[in-house]
Design a protein that fits this description.
The strands form two sheets. A five-stranded mixed sheet has the order 2-1-10-5-6. Strands 3, 4, 7, 8 and 9 form a five-stranded antiparallel sheet that branches. It contains seven helices and ten strands. Helices cover about 25% and strands about 25% of the residues. The longest helix has 21 residues. Bound molecules: ligand MTE and molybdenum atom.
C-alpha cells in the first residue's frame, strides 16, 4: 500500500470517527450521562461505530499494529481499571500463586477445552512490544508474551455459526448503578485470529502482575485498552452478544462505549 493511500485512509477513518470525537469519552472510570439510555447522541455514536468497523474491515482486515524496540519501553505497564480483584474465587487462586487456574473454552466449538496455565505456557508463544492506548488519553509501550488466541481456537475447532469470542473476567466494577457488575468483553473472529491477538501471561519479561491482569489477559493490539480483558475467567464462542451482560458486547459498551474500539 502506498503512503498516500494510507494517509487518505487515515483521514477517511478520522472523518468516520468525527461524531464519536465530539463527545468527551471521559475515561475508564467515569462515563458521560449523555451516553446512557437511548439518546440521539448514542444512536449517532452507534452508526459512526458500525461505519468505522466496516471501513476498517474493508481496508485493513489483516493489518498489523506497530511494534516497537525494547529501548522504547519507558516504564512498567501503567495499571488501570480493576487492579486488585477481591472476589473469593480470585483470591483463592491468587493465594495458590494461580496453580489452580483453569481456562474453559466453550460455546460454539467442536471440542470444549479446559486448560491449565502450564498447558497454556507450553504452547508456542508470541512476544510483541506494542503501545497500549486508553480512552482516558494515555499510552504505554510494553512487551507482551502469550499464546496466540488463534492457536487455542484451532484446538477447540470453532463451529461455523460462531461470530464472536466472548471473554468473562474475575473482577466486577461498581458504577453506582445496581451493584458490582462483572467485566466482560467480546471481539469478532477476525480480531480473534489476528496474529497479534494473544492471551498474555508475561509482561516486560516478567510473570504478568495482578495489577495488569494475572494470570491471563488478552491483547487486541488494533483496539483501545478497554477491549483487552484482564483476569480472564472463561472464553466462549457465540453467534450473538445478546445473552451477555447488557447485550452490547462488553462492560463499557453496556454504558455507551463503542463496541469496535479500533485505533
Ligand atoms: N477485567 C478487566 N479488564 C480490563 C479492565 C478492567 O477494569 N477489568 N480495564 C480495561 C482498561 S480501560 C484498560 S486501559 C486496560 C488496562 O490494562 P493495564 O492495567 O494492564 O494497563 O485493561 C482493560 N481491561
Ligand atoms: Mo482504558
Amino acid at each position: 500500500m502506498s503512503r498516500t493511500f494510507l494517509a487518505n485512509r487515515r483521514r477517511f477513518l478520522t472523518l468516520a470517527g468525527v461524531a464519536a470525537s465530539t463527545v468527551p469519552l471521559s475515561g475508564c472510570d467515569a462515563f458521560d450521562g449523555l451516553l446512557s439510555g437511548d439518546s440521539a447522541v448514542r444512536r449517532t455514536l452507534a452508526s459512526a461505530n458500525s461505519l468505522s468497523y466496516r471501513v476498517q474491515r474493508m481496508l485493513a482486515g489483516d493489518r498489523l499494529a506497530p511494534e516497537f524496540s525494547a529501548t522504547e519501553i519507558r516504564q512498567g505497564q501503567r495499571p488501570n481499571g480493576s487492579t486488585d480483584p477481591n472476589g473469593a474465587d480470585y483470591l483463592a487462586m491468587k493465594a495458590a500463586a494461580f496453580a489452580t487456574y483453569r481456562l474453559p473454552v466453550t460455546g460454539l466449538v467442536e471440542k470444549p477445552l479446559d486448560l491449565g496455565l502450564d498447558e497454556i505456557r507450553a504452547m508456542p508463544a508470541r512476544t510483541q512490544i506494542t503501545r497500549h492506548d486508553c480512552v482516558e488519553g494515555w499510552s504505554c509501550i510494553a512487551k507482551w508474551t502469550g499464546v496466540p488466541l488463534a492457536t487455542i481456537l484451532d484446538e477447540a475447532r470453532v463451529r461455523p455459526e460462531a461470530r464472536y469470542v466472548v471473554v468473562r473476567c474475575y473482577d466486577a466494577m461498581d458504577l453506582g448503578r445496581g451493584g458490582p457488575t462483572p467485566y466482560y468483553e467480546s471481539i469478532d473472529l477476525l480480531d480473534a485470529r489476528h496474529p497479534q491477538t494473544i492471551l498474555a501471561y508475561g509482561c516486560n519479561d516478567e510473570t504478568l502482575s495482578v495489577a495488569n491482569g494475572a494470570p491471563l489477559r488478552m491483547r487486541v493490539e488494533r483496539q483501545l485498552g478497554y477491549k483487552m480483558p484482564k483476569y480472564i475467567k472463561s472464553i466462549e464462542l457465540a453467534a450473538t452478544l445478546a445473552p451477555y451482560g447488557g447485550g452490547k458486547g462488553g462492560f463499557w459498551e453496556d454504558v455507551g462505549y463503542d463496541w469496535y474500539g479500533g485505533i
